[in-house]
Amino acid sequence: DVKVTQSSRYLVKRTGEKVFLECVQDMDHENMFWYRQDPGLGLRLIYFSYDVKMKEKGDIPEGYSVSREKKERFSLILESASTNQTSMYLCASSLTSISGSHNEQFFGPGTRLTVL
Amino acid sequence: AQSVTQLDSQVPVFEEAPVELRCNYSSSVSVYLFWYVQYPNQGLQLLLKYLSGSTLVKGINGFEAEFNKSQTSFHLRKPSVHISDTAEYFCAVSPHFSGTYKYIFGTGTRLKVLA
């Protein structure tokens, strides 16, 4: 079974703090994704990575950065946390399909971040 | 660009009744289609996917969905729901040959199964 783990289930930080959210997958997937989930807005893509040290902006990258130094680990960084970044953060990973069809994304349990 | 619309934000239904959760999409290119389920305090889990072939797709837990290209829809159905089906359901699309494997998610439908 593919396992995607996230470093914390719940996190409380103060405005202006630097925040690190860690995601690790154990199935050698090339692609990794960070989403935020807000009520009524569904999942919105923040950043994704298709290889080590490679990254691309998603739909809402402002205020976030990412790091992928190892294939299994993808970190989301909030340089200076703000209250509007209070949200559920979900990490996902997927395999690059040989056939060209899209493979399933496997999700972690999520980190609920509260910024005070 | 692609977009996904889930018109129903909440759907209450009695146990053992049938349910349909609606999903419509907009895209100028062909897409792959997915339904995910999120149980309380958990991540998302794939229910089913349409990549090609038969337009009726069967998934886990007795769910199925039908791809209708002319109506650009991919509605999710279950003939008889259980209390344990209470969850949030997300429809997603991914454009063919996008090279990035990005998904575009709908805003979700909360299914509440009543005893």
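Chain B has a mean pLDDT of 92.
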